[in-house]
Amino acid sequence: MAAEVAIVDLAAPRDELVEAVRAAFSATRNAQCPGMLRLKMSALHAAQLRAVHAESRQFFELPQAAKEEYLAAPGYPSGPHRCGGYKPQKAYEDADGRLHMLNEWFVAGCPRPIDRSIEPEYYDTEEGRHFFADDTPRNWPAEVPGLRPAADEYFLTTERVCFQLLDAFEAVLGCEPGELLNRARREPFYVTTIAHYPEQSVPPPEGQMRIDPHYDQSFFALVGTCDAGLPSGNLEVRGMDDEWREVGLGEGELVLNCGEQLARLSNGMLHHAVHRVQNPQPTAEPGSTSRISVMTYFQVDYDAAITPLPSSVAASGIPPKYPESRAGELILYTDPELSERLGYDLEAQNKMRIAQGLYDEASNMMAVAKPSDYTEVDLDITTKTLQEAGGVVGVRAAERTTLKSIAPQRTSRL
C-alpha cells in the first residue's frame, strides 16, 4: 500500500512554499502520512545527492576489515560536531554462524571549523564539550578520496535547505519573527548519516528489520536516496489508522520527517513521523536489494527551549500538551548517566524511552518497538500511579487539531 505524501517544491517563492507546507499538513493529507512531506530538490542539490550516493557505495563495497579502519568516535547521534566515520549498526547470523549486516552507516559532520570566540560559554560547558568535542577526528577513507568533498558539499547545501524550511515552519505556526530561527543560531552539531542496507543473500530472522519503527527526536530529518525505484525494502510511514504505507520517492526528491521537537513546539498539531524500513522481498536478481539512504537530522541549539509555542497553543485550542524541556534533554534521552550529570529530568527522559517503544516501565528492552506519544505515556503512568494510590482518574480525549485553521500571521522577512 502506497502513501499519498504531499510534494512541495523548494524552488517555489517563499509565500507559495509556506502555503504548500500548510496544505500538506492539513487533516486530509496528514492522515495517511502524519508528519511527512516530499520535497523537490534543486538540480544542484540532486546532483550532490547522486555524488554522495556513488562515492559512499564505493566505501560500503570495501571489505569489512577495511571499513572498520575508519570507525567513528562514540557519541552519535548527539554529537560531537566533527564526528565522522564508519558505524556498523545491525547484523544477524545465518545457520552456519556467518555474520550478515542489516544496516551500516558512514557519518559526516559539518565541515566548518568552530568559532569559539562567539559565545564561548556555549561551547565550554559540559554540554557544549559533549556536543562540540575538539579531539574527535573525521575519519575519511583513503580508498575513496571523493567521499569527503561530496559529503561536505551536500551537507552545506542541505543546511541552507534546513533554514529555508525552518523559516517556512515559523510562518506556518504563526510564530513571532525569529521565534524558531533564533533557536538555531550557533554552529550545528547535527550530522549527515549515509545508511547502507546491504544485499540480503540470506533472509534475516523473523522480526528483524533494517530499521525498527521509531520517530526522530530531532527537529526534523531530511532523507534522500537514489534507490527509490527498488521493488521493496523502502521507507514506510504509519498512518493515523495504524496502517503502514510505503513512501514512494521520485528522482531528485527528499522526504521530510517531522521530529519530536517540532511536534512539541506545535503542541501536537504537527505529528512526529513514525516510520520504519522493512526487509526486502527475496529476489533472484543480484544487487537489487542493496539500498543507500542519505539522512540529515536537523537540530536546534542544545540549550533551546522545546515547549509548545504560544501561537500553537492558541491555534490548537487546548492547553500545552508537553512539559517544558531543552533540545539537549530530548536528544540525550537514551543516555541516563550523562543526562544525570547534566541535570536533565530523568523521569521525563524515561517517559521518552517508553514512548519510543524501546523500553517498558521496568526498563526492559522491547522485542519490537511500538512508538506512541509522550503525552499518552505520561497520562498512562499518572493514571496507574493514582489508581494504585486509590484515586479516581477521569480522562477526556482532546479533539485532534490540524494546521487547517491557522491563517498566515506575518509576511516574509527574506
Q: How would you sum up this structure, described in words?
A:
The radius of gyration is 21 Å and the shape is globular. With 414 residues, the chain is of the alpha+beta class. The longest helix is centred in the middle third of the chain and has 26 residues, at 147-172. Helix 1 packs across helix 7 (147-172), helix 3 crosses helix 7 and helix 12 (346-355) crosses helix 13 (374-388). Strands 1-2-10-7-12-5-4-3 form an eight-stranded mixed sheet. It has a four-stranded antiparallel sheet with strand order 6-11-8-9, with no helix packed on it. The chain has a two-stranded antiparallel sheet with strand order 13-14. The chain is built from 13 helices and 14 strands. Mean pLDDT is 80; it is low at 389-414.
- Spans with pLDDT under 50 lasting ≥5 residues? 389-414
SSE arrangement, N to C: EHHEHHEEHHHEEEEEEHEEEHEHHHH
Largest beta-sheet details: 8 strands, mixed
The Cα radius of gyration reads 21 Å
Number of helices: 13
Task: Give the structural class.
Answer: alpha+beta
Nearest-integer average pLDDT: 80
Strand content: 15-25%
3D shape: globular
Helix content: 25-40%
Oligomer status = single chain
Features:
single chain; 414 residues; alpha+beta; eight-stranded mixed beta sheet; four-stranded antiparallel beta sheet; 13 helices; 14 strands; 17% strand; globular
Q: Would you spell out the secondary-structure blueprint of this structure?
A:
Layout: E1 7-9, H1 14-24, H2 27-30, E2 36-40, H3 43-60, H4 64-67, E3 84-93, E4 99-108, H5 120-124, H6 126-131, H7 147-172, E5 192-197, E6 211-214, E7 220-225, E8 235-238, E9 244-246, E10 253-258, H8 260-265, E11 275-277, E12 291-298, E13 305-306, H9 310-316, E14 325-326, H10 327-331, H11 336-341, H12 346-355, H13 374-388
Parallel strand pairs: 1-2
Antiparallel strand pairs: 2-10, 3-4, 4-5, 5-12, 6-11, 7-10, 7-12, 8-9, 8-11, 13-14
